[in-house]
Amino acid sequence: MITRRSWAVAGLTAAATLLLVPGPAHADKSPGSGSQGNADSGGGREGQEIVSVIRFSGATRGGGGGGGGALKPVGDWSPPACWYEPRTAEQFRDQVERNYESTVNFPGQHSYAKAAVAQFRTKYKDGEYKNYNLKEKDKGNWWVAVRDPDRWLEDAAQKCDKDPFWVENGDPPPVANALTPELLAELAYNRLRLPDTKVSLAPEDTTKVNLPTWAWLDEAEFKPVSVTASVDVPGLDLRATTTARPDALRLDPGTPDARTHPASGECAPHGDGSIGTPYRKGRADETPPCGLTYLRSSGKGTFKLQATITWKVSWAGTGNAGPNGLPSGSFGSDQPVAVEEVQSVNR
Question: Can you give the pTM of this predicted structure?
Answer without folding.
Answer: 0.78
